[in-house]
Amino acid sequence: VQLQASGGGLAQAGGSLRLSCAASGRGFSGYSVGWFRQAPGKDREFVASITRDGGSTYYLDSVKGRFAISRDDAKNTVYLQMNSLKPEDTAVYYCAAKFGYGLGSSAGQYRYWGQGALVTVSS
């Protein structure tokens, strides 16, 4: 499966952005998907994940209540709705996929990665 992230950009603190992760290839509904981010000078960190059936989600504590991950398998797309953005959310965001059900929070669990989408939040 190939992934392509889009929807990044510039937002003011308190604003919103929605990232999309479009998948090509067959059988996308069999993959769990995660979003990760990497800020300048920092390690890549887990942000959110969703199971292959969309029934369960998992979030980094600092984004709970502000971010929401969802999927539309008819469109082979996973979304990350980001509300109440903060300057510390500034990072390159990556989507990743792994075959199977689990809610992975470790980058090593994901085999397929999209290119990054830059999100910049100004104060």
Give the SSE map.
Layout lengths: L1 E5 L2 E4 L4 E8 L6 E8 L6 E6 L6 E3 L7 E6 L4 E6 L8 E9 L12 E2 L3 E6 L1
Parallel strand pairs: 2-11
Antiparallel strand pairs: 1-3, 3-8, 4-5, 4-9, 5-6, 7-8, 9-10, 9-11
Task: Describe this structure as you would to a colleague.
The protein has strands spanning 2-6, 9-12, 17-24, 31-38, 45-50, 57-59, 67-72, 77-82, 91-99, 112-113, 117-122. By secondary structure, the chain is mostly beta strands. The strands form two sheets. Strands 2, 4, 5, 6, 9, 10 and 11 form a seven-stranded mixed sheet that branches. The chain has a four-stranded antiparallel sheet with strand order 1-3-8-7, with no helix packed on it. A hairpin with a 4-residue loop joins strand 7 (67-72) and strand 8.
State which percent range the strand residues make up: over 45%
Q: Helical segment tally?
A: 0
**What is the number of beta strands?**
11
**Which structural class is indicated by helix and strand composition?**
mainly beta
What is the averaged pLDDT score? 96
| Rg over C-alpha atoms, rounded to the nearest angstrom | 13 Å
Largest sheet: 7 strands, mixed
Q: What sort of overall outline do the alpha carbons produce when their principal axes are compared?
A: globular
- Low-pLDDT segments: none
The share of residues in helices is under 10%
Topology order in helix (H) and strand (E) letters: EEEEEEEEEEE
What multimeric state do the chains show? single chain
Q: Termini separation (Å)?
A: 37 Å
